[in-house]
Amino acid sequence: MDEKLQKVLARHGLGSRRQMEAWIRAGRVQINDRPATIGDRVTSRDRLSVDGKPLRVPSWVRPRLRVLRYHKPAGELATRQDPEGRPTVFDRLPRLRGSRWVAVGRLDLNTEGLLLFTNDGDLANALMHPRAELERVYAVRVLGSLSDEQKAALLAGVELEDGPARFLAIEEAGGEGSNRWYHVSLAEGRNREVRRLLAAVHLSVSRLIRIRYGPIDMPRHLKLGYFEELSDAERSVLLDAVQWSDPQATAAAEHGPEDRRPNRSRQHRHGLRTELQRGKGGPRSGHA
Question: Biased composition, Gly residues: where in the chain (predicted)?
Fold first, then answer.
Protein backbone atom coordinates (compact mmCIF):
# COMPACT_ATOMS: atom_id res chain seq x y z
CA MET A 1 0.00 0.00 0.00
CA ASP A 2 1.43 3.40 -0.93
CA GLU A 3 0.75 6.92 0.38
CA LYS A 4 1.40 10.44 -0.79
CA LEU A 5 4.83 11.58 0.34
CA GLN A 6 3.66 14.91 1.77
CA LYS A 7 1.00 13.11 3.82
CA VAL A 8 3.59 10.82 5.37
CA LEU A 9 5.87 13.72 6.25
CA ALA A 10 3.05 15.80 7.73
CA ARG A 11 1.93 12.83 9.81
CA HIS A 12 5.33 12.77 11.47
CA GLY A 13 4.88 16.31 12.76
CA LEU A 14 7.29 17.93 10.31
CA GLY A 15 4.66 20.48 9.29
CA SER A 16 1.46 20.80 7.29
CA ARG A 17 1.08 19.11 3.90
CA ARG A 18 1.47 22.49 2.22
CA GLN A 19 4.76 23.03 4.05
CA MET A 20 5.93 19.55 3.07
CA GLU A 21 5.15 20.27 -0.57
CA ALA A 22 7.35 23.37 -0.31
CA TRP A 23 10.16 21.26 1.18
CA ILE A 24 9.84 18.77 -1.66
CA ARG A 25 10.00 21.55 -4.27
CA ALA A 26 13.07 22.97 -2.51
CA GLY A 27 14.86 19.62 -2.79
CA ARG A 28 15.00 18.99 0.94
CA VAL A 29 13.37 15.54 0.77
CA GLN A 30 14.90 12.36 -0.65
CA ILE A 31 13.42 8.95 -1.46
CA ASN A 32 15.93 6.12 -1.69
CA ASP A 33 18.77 8.67 -2.00
CA ARG A 34 17.17 10.53 -4.92
CA PRO A 35 15.45 13.94 -4.76
CA ALA A 36 11.71 13.61 -4.24
CA THR A 37 9.20 15.33 -6.52
CA ILE A 38 5.62 16.46 -6.09
CA GLY A 39 3.32 13.53 -6.78
CA ASP A 40 5.68 10.86 -5.41
CA ARG A 41 4.10 8.07 -3.41
CA VAL A 42 5.95 5.84 -0.95
CA THR A 43 5.61 2.36 0.51
CA SER A 44 7.20 0.41 3.37
CA ARG A 45 10.13 -0.45 1.07
CA ASP A 46 11.19 3.17 0.60
CA ARG A 47 13.84 5.00 2.61
CA LEU A 48 13.00 8.62 3.37
CA SER A 49 15.31 11.41 4.49
CA VAL A 50 14.95 15.14 5.06
CA ASP A 51 17.95 17.43 4.59
CA GLY A 52 20.06 14.29 4.23
CA LYS A 53 18.95 12.85 7.59
CA PRO A 54 16.90 9.62 7.54
CA LEU A 55 13.64 9.43 9.42
CA ARG A 56 14.30 7.47 12.55
CA VAL A 57 11.23 5.24 12.29
CA PRO A 58 9.64 3.70 9.18
CA SER A 59 7.43 6.29 7.52
CA TRP A 60 4.57 3.87 7.07
CA VAL A 61 4.17 3.31 10.82
CA ARG A 62 1.71 5.86 12.15
CA PRO A 63 2.83 7.23 15.53
CA ARG A 64 0.30 7.52 18.33
CA LEU A 65 -1.54 10.81 18.06
CA ARG A 66 -0.42 13.13 20.83
CA VAL A 67 -1.80 16.49 21.98
CA LEU A 68 -0.21 18.54 24.77
CA ARG A 69 -1.20 21.77 26.41
CA TYR A 70 1.49 24.08 27.67
CA HIS A 71 1.31 27.10 29.96
CA LYS A 72 3.55 29.53 28.11
CA PRO A 73 5.29 32.20 30.20
CA ALA A 74 6.04 35.65 28.86
CA GLY A 75 9.57 35.81 27.51
CA GLU A 76 9.48 32.58 25.48
CA LEU A 77 9.42 32.62 21.70
CA ALA A 78 6.87 30.50 19.83
CA THR A 79 9.50 29.34 17.37
CA ARG A 80 11.65 26.24 17.11
CA GLN A 81 15.03 27.99 17.19
CA ASP A 82 16.24 31.50 17.90
CA PRO A 83 19.53 32.83 16.48
CA GLU A 84 20.01 34.86 19.66
CA GLY A 85 19.66 31.78 21.87
CA ARG A 86 16.57 32.98 23.69
CA PRO A 87 14.26 30.37 25.30
CA THR A 88 11.53 28.91 23.11
CA VAL A 89 8.31 27.08 23.82
CA PHE A 90 9.86 23.87 22.45
CA ASP A 91 12.69 23.75 25.02
CA ARG A 92 10.64 22.03 27.71
CA LEU A 93 8.61 19.54 25.68
CA PRO A 94 9.31 15.78 25.85
CA ARG A 95 11.34 14.33 22.99
CA LEU A 96 9.57 12.32 20.32
CA ARG A 97 10.98 9.44 18.30
CA GLY A 98 10.60 9.82 14.56
CA SER A 99 8.46 12.96 14.67
CA ARG A 100 8.37 16.34 16.32
CA TRP A 101 5.97 18.69 18.05
CA VAL A 102 4.03 21.22 16.00
CA ALA A 103 2.56 24.27 17.72
CA VAL A 104 -1.12 24.94 17.11
CA GLY A 105 -0.92 28.65 16.38
CA ARG A 106 1.42 31.08 18.09
CA LEU A 107 1.61 33.44 21.03
CA ASP A 108 3.88 36.46 20.83
CA LEU A 109 6.87 36.97 23.11
CA ASN A 110 5.00 38.88 25.81
CA THR A 111 1.78 36.85 25.75
CA GLU A 112 1.20 34.06 28.27
CA GLY A 113 -1.20 31.18 28.51
CA LEU A 114 -2.51 28.17 26.67
CA LEU A 115 -0.55 26.79 23.73
CA LEU A 116 -1.44 23.42 22.20
CA PHE A 117 1.04 21.06 20.54
CA THR A 118 0.52 17.90 18.50
CA ASN A 119 2.76 15.43 16.69
CA ASP A 120 0.49 15.45 13.63
CA GLY A 121 1.10 18.34 11.25
CA ASP A 122 -2.20 17.82 9.42
CA LEU A 123 -4.14 18.02 12.67
CA ALA A 124 -2.28 21.18 13.68
CA ASN A 125 -3.16 22.74 10.34
CA ALA A 126 -6.84 21.75 10.71
CA LEU A 127 -6.98 23.30 14.20
CA MET A 128 -5.46 26.57 12.94
CA HIS A 129 -7.41 26.85 9.69
CA PRO A 130 -9.93 29.72 9.58
CA ARG A 131 -12.70 27.40 8.40
CA ALA A 132 -12.55 25.59 11.76
CA GLU A 133 -13.69 28.83 13.46
CA LEU A 134 -12.28 27.68 16.79
CA GLU A 135 -12.81 30.40 19.37
CA ARG A 136 -9.74 31.78 21.16
CA VAL A 137 -10.42 33.36 24.55
CA TYR A 138 -7.99 35.75 26.26
CA ALA A 139 -7.80 37.46 29.62
CA VAL A 140 -6.48 40.95 28.95
CA ARG A 141 -5.48 43.70 31.38
CA VAL A 142 -5.69 47.26 30.12
CA LEU A 143 -4.93 50.65 31.55
CA GLY A 144 -8.32 52.27 31.91
CA SER A 145 -11.69 50.79 31.04
CA LEU A 146 -13.73 50.15 27.92
CA SER A 147 -16.58 52.56 27.33
CA ASP A 148 -19.85 51.39 25.80
CA GLU A 149 -18.85 53.09 22.55
CA GLN A 150 -15.48 51.31 22.47
CA LYS A 151 -17.11 47.94 23.17
CA ALA A 152 -19.64 48.51 20.40
CA ALA A 153 -16.85 49.38 17.93
CA LEU A 154 -14.77 46.31 18.85
CA LEU A 155 -17.77 44.01 18.50
CA ALA A 156 -18.89 45.55 15.22
CA GLY A 157 -15.40 45.51 13.74
CA VAL A 158 -12.53 47.93 13.20
CA GLU A 159 -10.17 48.28 10.28
CA LEU A 160 -6.62 47.04 10.89
CA GLU A 161 -3.67 47.19 8.49
CA ASP A 162 -4.37 43.59 7.39
CA GLY A 163 -8.13 43.96 7.10
CA PRO A 164 -11.22 44.27 9.32
CA ALA A 165 -11.28 42.46 12.67
CA ARG A 166 -13.58 42.21 15.66
CA PHE A 167 -14.12 40.50 18.99
CA LEU A 168 -16.85 37.89 19.23
CA ALA A 169 -17.51 38.79 22.87
CA ILE A 170 -16.22 41.09 25.60
CA GLU A 171 -16.82 40.38 29.31
CA GLU A 172 -15.65 42.36 32.33
CA ALA A 173 -13.40 40.30 34.63
CA GLY A 174 -12.56 42.61 37.53
CA GLY A 175 -9.45 44.53 38.43
CA GLU A 176 -8.30 47.23 40.81
CA GLY A 177 -7.57 50.93 40.40
CA SER A 178 -6.81 51.98 36.85
CA ASN A 179 -6.10 48.42 35.66
CA ARG A 180 -9.13 46.52 34.39
CA TRP A 181 -9.39 42.90 33.25
CA TYR A 182 -11.58 41.70 30.38
CA HIS A 183 -12.21 38.35 28.72
CA VAL A 184 -12.28 38.73 24.95
CA SER A 185 -12.76 36.12 22.24
CA LEU A 186 -11.75 35.80 18.60
CA ALA A 187 -12.52 33.31 15.85
CA GLU A 188 -9.08 33.60 14.25
CA GLY A 189 -5.42 33.83 15.16
CA ARG A 190 -3.88 36.81 13.37
CA ASN A 191 -0.62 38.27 14.61
CA ARG A 192 -1.02 40.39 17.79
CA GLU A 193 -4.70 40.79 17.00
CA VAL A 194 -5.94 41.42 20.55
CA ARG A 195 -3.33 44.11 21.14
CA ARG A 196 -3.99 45.76 17.78
CA LEU A 197 -7.76 45.77 18.25
CA LEU A 198 -7.48 47.48 21.63
CA ALA A 199 -4.89 49.91 20.29
CA ALA A 200 -7.43 50.87 17.61
CA VAL A 201 -9.69 52.24 20.38
CA HIS A 202 -6.73 53.88 22.17
CA LEU A 203 -6.21 51.35 24.95
CA SER A 204 -2.86 49.73 25.78
CA VAL A 205 -2.47 46.14 26.99
CA SER A 206 -0.33 45.54 30.07
CA ARG A 207 -0.88 41.77 30.28
CA LEU A 208 -2.38 39.19 27.93
CA ILE A 209 -3.15 35.54 28.72
CA ARG A 210 -4.84 32.99 26.46
CA ILE A 211 -7.20 30.93 28.62
CA ARG A 212 -9.00 28.81 26.01
CA TYR A 213 -8.47 27.46 22.49
CA GLY A 214 -11.60 25.93 20.97
CA PRO A 215 -13.04 23.55 23.59
CA ILE A 216 -9.77 23.28 25.56
CA ASP A 217 -9.30 25.39 28.71
CA MET A 218 -6.20 26.16 30.74
CA PRO A 219 -6.64 24.34 34.08
CA ARG A 220 -5.81 26.12 37.33
CA HIS A 221 -3.25 23.51 38.38
CA LEU A 222 -0.98 23.91 35.33
CA LYS A 223 1.78 26.32 36.35
CA LEU A 224 3.80 28.60 34.11
CA GLY A 225 6.35 26.63 32.11
CA TYR A 226 4.63 23.27 32.65
CA PHE A 227 2.88 20.97 30.17
CA GLU A 228 0.54 18.00 30.31
CA GLU A 229 -1.09 15.61 27.87
CA LEU A 230 -4.79 16.11 27.20
CA SER A 231 -7.06 13.51 28.70
CA ASP A 232 -8.74 11.07 26.31
CA ALA A 233 -12.05 12.90 26.78
CA GLU A 234 -10.55 16.31 26.06
CA ARG A 235 -8.71 15.04 23.02
CA SER A 236 -11.90 13.51 21.64
CA VAL A 237 -13.77 16.78 22.08
CA LEU A 238 -10.96 18.67 20.34
CA LEU A 239 -10.85 16.25 17.41
CA ASP A 240 -14.64 16.37 17.10
CA ALA A 241 -14.43 20.16 16.83
CA VAL A 242 -12.61 19.79 13.49
CA GLN A 243 -14.22 16.47 12.51
CA TRP A 244 -10.92 14.63 12.84
CA SER A 245 -10.73 10.86 13.36
CA ASP A 246 -7.99 9.08 15.30
CA PRO A 247 -7.73 5.48 14.03
CA GLN A 248 -5.29 4.55 16.79
CA ALA A 249 -7.20 5.89 19.75
CA THR A 250 -7.44 2.41 21.26
CA ALA A 251 -3.67 2.03 21.10
CA ALA A 252 -3.11 5.07 23.32
CA ALA A 253 -3.66 2.98 26.45
CA GLU A 254 -0.43 1.14 25.75
CA HIS A 255 1.58 4.30 26.50
CA GLY A 256 1.71 5.92 29.92
CA PRO A 257 1.31 9.68 30.27
CA GLU A 258 4.41 11.87 30.25
CA ASP A 259 5.54 13.64 33.43
CA ARG A 260 4.27 17.17 33.08
CA ARG A 261 7.18 18.69 35.04
CA PRO A 262 9.77 20.57 32.98
CA ASN A 263 13.49 19.97 33.09
CA ARG A 264 14.61 21.78 36.25
CA SER A 265 17.99 22.79 34.86
CA ARG A 266 16.25 24.50 31.95
CA GLN A 267 13.88 26.24 34.32
CA HIS A 268 16.79 27.72 36.25
CA ARG A 269 18.70 28.60 33.08
CA HIS A 270 15.81 30.53 31.56
CA GLY A 271 15.05 32.27 34.85
CA LEU A 272 11.39 31.37 34.68
CA ARG A 273 10.98 30.86 38.38
CA THR A 274 10.37 34.59 38.56
CA GLU A 275 7.37 34.16 36.28
CA LEU A 276 5.67 32.07 38.98
CA GLN A 277 5.75 35.09 41.28
CA ARG A 278 4.29 37.59 38.80
CA GLY A 279 1.28 39.57 39.93
CA LYS A 280 -1.52 38.82 42.36
CA GLY A 281 -5.21 38.82 41.61
CA GLY A 282 -6.36 39.04 38.00
CA PRO A 283 -8.59 36.80 35.92
CA ARG A 284 -10.53 33.81 37.16
CA SER A 285 -8.26 31.47 35.17
CA GLY A 286 -5.70 31.61 37.98
CA HIS A 287 -2.85 32.64 35.70
CA ALA A 288 -2.19 36.08 37.10
Answer: 279-288
